[in-house]
Amino acid sequence: MIRREITDGTFPFRDEFEDIHMNIEQRLRELVGETGGKLHTGRSRNDQVALDLRLYCLGAASGWQKSIWRLVGLIAERAEEFKTNLFPAWTHMQAAQPMSWGHYFLSLAEMLARDEARLSSFQLLHSVSPLGAGALSGSSLPLAPEVTAEILGFSGSFGNSYDVVGDRDALLELSQIAVQLMIHLSRWAEDFIYMASTPVGWIDLPDSLCTGSSMMPQKKNPDLLELTRGKTASVIGHCTGLMTLLKGLPTSYQRDLQQDKEHLFSIVDTVTDSLEVQTLLWAGLDVKVEKAQAALDNGFLMATELAEYLVAKGVPFRAAHHQVGSLVKQCIDQDRTLSDMSLDEFRILFPLVDEEVLEVVRPEGALLRRTHKGSTGIRSIELQLKNWQSWLDQRGE
Amino acid sequence: MIRREITDGTFPFRDEFEDIHMNIEQRLRELVGETGGKLHTGRSRNDQVALDLRLYCLGAASGWQKSIWRLVGLIAERAEEFKTNLFPAWTHMQAAQPMSWGHYFLSLAEMLARDEARLSSFQLLHSVSPLGAGALSGSSLPLAPEVTAEILGFSGSFGNSYDVVGDRDALLELSQIAVQLMIHLSRWAEDFIYMASTPVGWIDLPDSLCTGSSMMPQKKNPDLLELTRGKTASVIGHCTGLMTLLKGLPTSYQRDLQQDKEHLFSIVDTVTDSLEVQTLLWAGLDVKVEKAQAALDNGFLMATELAEYLVAKGVPFRAAHHQVGSLVKQCIDQDRTLSDMSLDEFRILFPLVDEEVLEVVRPEGALLRRTHKGSTGIRSIELQLKNWQSWLDQRGE
Amino acid sequence: MIRREITDGTFPFRDEFEDIHMNIEQRLRELVGETGGKLHTGRSRNDQVALDLRLYCLGAASGWQKSIWRLVGLIAERAEEFKTNLFPAWTHMQAAQPMSWGHYFLSLAEMLARDEARLSSFQLLHSVSPLGAGALSGSSLPLAPEVTAEILGFSGSFGNSYDVVGDRDALLELSQIAVQLMIHLSRWAEDFIYMASTPVGWIDLPDSLCTGSSMMPQKKNPDLLELTRGKTASVIGHCTGLMTLLKGLPTSYQRDLQQDKEHLFSIVDTVTDSLEVQTLLWAGLDVKVEKAQAALDNGFLMATELAEYLVAKGVPFRAAHHQVGSLVKQCIDQDRTLSDMSLDEFRILFPLVDEEVLEVVRPEGALLRRTHKGSTGIRSIELQLKNWQSWLDQRGE
Amino acid sequence: MIRREITDGTFPFRDEFEDIHMNIEQRLRELVGETGGKLHTGRSRNDQVALDLRLYCLGAASGWQKSIWRLVGLIAERAEEFKTNLFPAWTHMQAAQPMSWGHYFLSLAEMLARDEARLSSFQLLHSVSPLGAGALSGSSLPLAPEVTAEILGFSGSFGNSYDVVGDRDALLELSQIAVQLMIHLSRWAEDFIYMASTPVGWIDLPDSLCTGSSMMPQKKNPDLLELTRGKTASVIGHCTGLMTLLKGLPTSYQRDLQQDKEHLFSIVDTVTDSLEVQTLLWAGLDVKVEKAQAALDNGFLMATELAEYLVAKGVPFRAAHHQVGSLVKQCIDQDRTLSDMSLDEFRILFPLVDEEVLEVVRPEGALLRRTHKGSTGIRSIELQLKNWQSWLDQRGE
Fold first, then answer.
1. Each residue of B73-90: pLDDT tens digit?
2. Per the CB < 8 Å rule, is D217 touching A328?
């Protein structure tokens, strides 16, 4: 009944009763008489607060996992869709090698899967009920902490009362996982803001993530990705706040700990919202396939491929590396690219090569000639997609 | 042979060969001829650096676990030694309830055990070999990343080449665990510095952790505990450096990542050293049993105990709480303590009580009257000690 | 009139007009007709937001200065009150030398005065109006940014439009000053929590800063000082959030900047409130003069004094240092203190000394024998008090 | 002579003498006999360490100022060189308005000048000698701290001995200024990495800042800018380390403070080096004027300009804004740009306009039509250049 009153908003909160605990006890006394005064028996605000925080953290972790499952499903769909389309993947923001959009998208799923695994370990480690620890030393009443633990769905009850009332490890660990998760989202937000910037233009972001200007309707500002990136900084700030807070304390309960909530709540809300935004992103993201493909011609992205081909023909790696470097330099001087070369020209430099070399220096080669597990080759991508499907099946998605 | 040269210090490092990779390759070519040029086949500095970092992190995690096992063993010994001695445990740095030194010490072991569990999850999650991922897209050579993974002792090989070359999750997670571990050490360093401070004086720190003054030989500065506390701040700083570094990057390899090593190495060394210092601490820590015991008389630490006793006699908690509060106030006005009260005096206020009440208000009651799991009662402490022994046995300590 | 409506709460905010700017413009058009459409002429949300943030920061800085003046006045009063009372000042939380409470209190005023000086430099540096910078490049309309700057009370107008719209230096600098100020408050909160802890008890905190327990009325938890300490961690976290946010951005306006407000507002409110709490603290703080004085006997705090006395008599410092060390050790062995020694006993060790030595080893000597500027001697304290009075007079307090 | 020995490397450091202070004293005693034992008279390691740290910080601040002067000079030169060349300045990484490279470069000088001003305030505030404060309370010897302060070149001596020995404000403030300075460098490093990335290509970075690949010679990785960006994260980390360290301490000297040096030294070295790297950058930076100019055609960057022109003709801003928006939308539908429109076409929409409108929609208009102080107009840029010259002259550069 009290629960119903609180949910309905009809619960008569009164300031003269210090806090939520006392208000509930008082209401119970009004409803059932003096027996209500037994409610707090064997309880202390210290173990109750520890319990509430723990339930809150475990609930958040479980919710985030569900969002990740949904997201991985969406990412896999888009990876399937664009698995044979290419773009110039970079290191140092300099075009390096051709890569499948599908492979790129699935690399982001890998990050989320690690976060999900950490959330599982987190739930296992902190499924411990603090109820019965009292203010710090337990109770002289014949409590059975194991029983309340089971009723509340925990794996077990506390091992040491003094530890458990001052233990804020679950808060810090959850915040740390949140930081890692947000850094993942921020790193690819950075990618997407770059790819959608005016002179690059390889992707088109869903309108729902952007704001425009009524005067410059072509200007599509990637606001929600910028905010994801900005909120990652905030989560890092809140996590630092928590670390600094906990570092400066002796053991046991100190009032400083009240500050942990400001940081925890902000982190939990931010992560929950940011995962929502991702759903919009992945459902509406569009790849400008041709513009990205065209960017592959700008460089000598097939140089590594060519060197590896020579190695397969028996040239020691270091020598192959060196010869390809000379060839590229020569092409630049003559303002040509590797795909402009004829078989005869290749043969002057590399007598061993046959017609295959003309395929090797085409970007599509990257998809076909890479065959091992984990590579950007089409076979590897299809294996990855199959594995993600199993991963989702195991989670009932 | 090259390994031996490096170990011996006779390896001819030369600056003209860019880095460690090229120096080794060059030396190999001197020793075995041009075949040495094959060494880098199917390799890239990107996957090699990712491999080295991962091996380094996994090694550190495993080393810390061993230190924690040793430390838990030591703490359990000292807890056994002082299990029946009491001190006034505090909240808000204000004396609150009597507690067994043994119970207090074992609360610290709980913290370490959580850190150890996180280190185990860490090792499981990141036991993935990056070798074969190349610069970012894998290789067109017929590599078998699964085989090199097995030889190197990993659980498996990478799922996605692009992810694995830019993945620094292991570094960040290890740093986060390090922060948590150091915060634990720092919180009890804070306790011990307080307990050893001039006007408190409940413990005596081992000389090996302190410096003195030749002119004031009685001044024993707890330098190594202060440094542990200070170094916790440094580890937090380094972890923030890493978070900020990773946050500001797009995916893939960017040179900014080179900065991760400054922070990682400092964190790993600090944690390793700080765990060493703990061994000295726990081996040499002395409790000034009588001074701590004497401090129990300063307050009304048995008030909770008395209220719980009344509850056991049938008084509703809230009423018991109220009556004991009045009694304490009355004692203060008369400059007496609870243990100065006679049975008759108690009976005036609480007609239900019998002789037992005189035991209830003595600090030793805390040890005897708390019987449930996890409390500061002697039965609970002995159960805890038994559980720690099993924990250590499982780990072969 | 619009200002009055907003203040009254009668302003008709409507969601269909994007933000506060558009709502005001719309209302103006309702009131004065189409001329209202001119309001935004030569304006952009970018320069307006930059202006508002700057006014907010400058206002906060000026408010904090006034609080500091009030606080320094209070501290000086309490320092005057307790200037001749002593306590054992520590290093490493180990009693080191006798110190006047007045001298100790005034050391805290020094910290605040440095913060106040930084707030002055801050106001000088950032008194620059951004109005007229437009979105980023200024305007082709004949604006006069210097004139609006003057009307708004700034020292001048922006030098470069592109810089000023993305410039968040004022936010970061204010947050950095806030961190320093809060660290000062936190450091002495740490002192006071220690000094008020049960076994130390040298001070009594005002009830308005503490909470008690109805059952243990003697337990006075220093909640507001603990919160000051905890909130310092939060301010550090928010400052780190801001640093990380700004670090990850290119120049110009990016939407990430919206996150700066969460951190800035929290910092400003926290500092303002924490300075309020200090007023309560300093108005109500009580020193338990005798308990603190009694603690001076616990050590050999006059050892330095004695050595300096020997130096004044011509003994080289290193030799004096050594001899006093031996004497102290001998006292400890015999369970005596320096003030138990007779003149004859002193003379056996130090033939040069006269009766004055008996004064030298009494704690009060610290007040009388230290005469130079800045020392804990009474003359120095009186000079400090006079200087603080001038400092306050200059500020019209 | 001792100074010469230390400089020469012939000074006989011996481990048995605790630290640098004792080694010097010992050597002095070897050279001059027992009088050497007077060296430490009226000194303490506490005030000496405080002195050394202060001198180190003040020296670093002064060195950074000189580097900034040099850098501002270089930036002004390059701004002069490219003052009439344009590029599409962005907000949200979306092209927004044409801007002069000169104006853009000078916006970066503004940031440095604010840092320089903070360094000046810093030097004024902390020019205080701690010598004579002893361990914490001053000395009973007749010291004259004012005199040693003057000899050492400080503005004055400490006001309160207890404050000055534990005061680490100078370290924190210098670190905070370093963070701000590095964030400035990082923000424009981010710009330049973007502008030099393969598909953008508006600038060419000096080879001395980049590494290449022997196999892909066209790939020019902007390593030193990436490191500048990465090192900014490190400086933020070190500053957070310092904040967290200081926050967790009571007043006076605690050994934790030893950790401040790890952070301070790393920050000072990083800033000094990063300013060096900037000299290479600005001396060698090249603008690809045509590629940047060409990028101006991609959008409707003159929309704001056109709207402002209409306003000048008497159209209320909001109406002008609306009409231009419609026109741009119409152009997009017809696949035309504003500069493709004829005067007659403009007149249909905006009857008031004359031939000037054809100039207004050309990018060069931005330079000519913006005339007020601080804008990107050529008159404003020339005024800025003149002001920077005065700024440099005042500093003797």
1. 999 999 999 999 999 999
2. yes
CA distance C151 to C144: 11
Q: Count Cβ atoms below 10 Å from residue A227 Cβ, excluding itself.
A: 22
- Residues of C classed as catalytic: 92, 213
According to the model, what pLDDT value does residue C144 have? 94
3-state secondary structure string, chain B?
CHHHHHHHCCCCCCCCCCCHHHHHHHHHHHHHHHHHHHCCCCCCHHHHHHHHHHHHHHHHHHHHHHHHHHHHHHHHHHHHHCCCCEEEEEECCEEEEEEEHHHHHHHHHHHHHHHHHHHHHHHHHCCEECCCCCCCCCCCCCCCHHHHHHHCCCCEECCCHHHHHHCCHHHHHHHHHHHHHHHHHHHHHHHHHHHCCCCCCCEECCHHHCECCCCCCCCCECHHHHHHHHHHHHHHHHHHHHHHHHHCCCCCCCHHHHHHHHHHHHHHHHHHHHHHHHHHHHHHCEECHHHHHHHHHHCCCCHHHHHHHHHHCCCCHHHHHHHHHHHHHHHHHCCCCHHHCCHHHHHHHCCCCCCHHHHHCCCCHHHHHCCCCCCCCHHHHHHHHHHHHHHHHHCCC
| Chains contacting D (3 or more CB pairs within 8 Å) | A, B, C
Query: What's the complex ipTM?
Result: 0.94
- Say which of B120, B213, B252, B326 is annotated catalytic: B213
Residue of A137, A213, A252, A326 with catalytic role: A213
Q: For residues D173, D179, D181 and D186, what is the CA-based torsion angle, rounded to 10 degrees? A: 180
Pure H helices in chain C = 2-8, 20-32, 45-81, 101-125, 145-151, 161-166, 169-195, 223-247, 260-284, 289-294, 303-312, 317-334, 343-349, 356-360, 365-369, 378-394
Residue type, C308: E
A330 vs D124: which has the higher pLDDT: D124
Average pLDDT, chain C: 93
* pLDDT per position as a tens digit, C218-252: 789 999 999 999 999 999 999 999 999 999 999 99
Contact of C372 with D134, CB cutoff 8 Å: no
Is D92 noted as a catalytic residue in this protein? yes
pLDDT digits (tens, 9 = 90+) for C23-81: 877 787 788 877 777 777 778 889 999 999 999 999 999 999 999 999 999 999 999 99
d(CA B232, CA B178): 9
In this complex, the chains that touch A, judged by 3 or more CB pairs closer than 8 A, are B, C, D
> How many C-beta atoms lie closer than 10 Å to residue C297's C-beta?
12
Tell me how far apart the terminal alpha carbons of chain C are, to the nearest angstrom: 36
Contacts of residue D166 in chain B, CB cutoff 8 Å? none
Nearest chain D CA: its distance from B339 CA (Å) = 36
pLDDT-derived band at D298, boundaries 50, 70, 90: low
Chain D, nearest residue to B226 by Cα: D256
CA distance to partner chain D, nearest, from residue A250 (Å): 10
Secondary structure of residue C151 in the 3-state scheme: helix
How many angstroms separate the CA atoms of A42 and A61, rounded?
29
Q: What is the pLDDT of residues A7-31, one digit of tens each?
A: 888 888 887 777 777 787 778 778 8
Note the pLDDT tens digit of each residue in A126-139.
999 999 999 999 99
Q: Which of B384, B288, A199 is nearest to D288 (CA)?
A: A199
The answer to whether the Cβ–Cβ distance between C376 and D106 falls below 8 Å is no
- Interface contact C110-D159, CB threshold 8 A: yes
D138: exposed, middle or buried (C-beta count within 10 Å: 0-12, 13-18, 19+)?
buried
DSSP 8-state assignment for residue C12: -
Q: Is B377 in contact with A138 (Cβ distance < 8 A)? A: yes
- How far does B354 lie from chain D, in Å, by closest CA? 48
